[in-house]
Structure formats: C-alpha cells, structure tokens
Amino acid sequence: MEIQAVNPKGFNEAVQRAVCENCLVENMIQMNCPKCSGLIKSPLLVELPEIECPQCRVNVKVHNVAVSTKNFFMQRNDLIKRIFNYKKLLEEVEKEIEQGKKDQDSTENTRKSADDLRSFLKDLLLAARDNFRLNMSYDLYVQINFDGDKRFAKLVNISSTGACIELVDRGQFPGNNTEIKFQLLLPGDKESLSLLARVICNRIVAKDTTSQSVNVGVQFKDIDEEVRSCLWNFIVDAETSAHT
User: Fold this and answer.
1) Within this chain, do residues 56 and 98 fall inside the same structural domain, yes or no?
2) pLDDT tens-digit profile of 198-208?
C-alpha cells in the first residue's frame, strides 16, 4: 500500500477531528494568543509546539496552557504534576462517603460536602485523562494486526483514547480508516492489552537523508473501562515519576 505524505497542517487537522469525535468534555484545553490575546481552544495544544490562532490567523508558540471546566480553571502543568495526589485523594473521599452511609451521626451537610469534593476531583481527573497524551521517554513496542499482516511498531505517544506509533521497516502499512488489532504489553504486566483501533492518519517522517519512517495515528474503538483504567494508570505512573 502506498503511503502519501501528509503536510503537518493536514495531519494535525485529521488528529483534531478524531480527538473531537471522541472527547467527552469540549474545549477544556485553552490558552491566550500571545499576539492578539484571543482565546485558543484546541485538544492539539497538548501536542503541538505551535498552533494557528483562529482570531489573528498567526502561528504562535504554545505556552501557558490551561484546563478549564465549569468547576475549575488550572494551569495544565500544575494539574499533570498533581494527578497522582488527586487520584489518591479521590479514593479516600469515596471511602469516606461509603462510611458516611453507614454512620447514623453523619449530617446532610457533611455528606453534601463530600459529594461536592468527589464531583470536583472526578472533574479534575476527567480533564486530565481525556486531554493528556504521554510522550514516551523510552522504547516500548506494540504489535499491530491488519489485513492478515502482523507488524511491530514503536510507541511514540499514548493516551486513554488513542496512540501514535512509528513503523520503520518497509512493508505493508495500514491505510486511513483501516481497523487494526493493537496489542501492548505494559511494563510489569504478564499479559498484553488487546484493543481494536481505527487508523486516522499517516505521515511520512524523514529520519535522515537515506531513511524514513511512517507515523500512524490510531483511535481506540469500543474500549472498556477496565482497559482504559489500565492505560490511564500506566500514563499517570509514567508522568508522575518524570516529575519526581
């Protein structure tokens, strides 16, 4: 199969369309344009070094990215650094809520405060989970199966909704909209995670003057909550260890 080169703008637009199709919370990721001060809202702010401002139409450097929902506004870097703490705190709050249901001395105000805190923490973690992509700092390989072919690929980045993989050897490549089987063995696990995924874009990347690779963007399909949790725990552990 012939893979056609896609310019960066076209590649990014394809990724953005796929992200928006599967995003549970719209317009969470945002920043102010350093040129015109207009608001830029895009899931691509977590991935790109530069982005075009929709107001002034100037390509600007991505900086001071924030996460905004109806309940909070926070700098994205601060949120990412605190993911592990928020996750642990949510677990403790949920234990307290369950205990409060059994405690006859628990007041309505106490229960409401706990419920509000749980809602806030879930909002925080949802913002992080559905808008954060882990860039791999070490080599981790996946196996993909498509059209009766089996290939190994290097994981470039991964989120709870999709991934980017790099194919370096010559051979058959999955085209856009191809359904593939995506198998990933996480560090410390004995069994691989097996997911269905849809190819959303391909891009040729020149490695040097004599060789090139193909980056393939995939979006996971029909992922169940257990597998999503495994991916998210891996991402959280990897990211928090990078900040400690």
Assistant:
1) no
2) 998 888 777 66
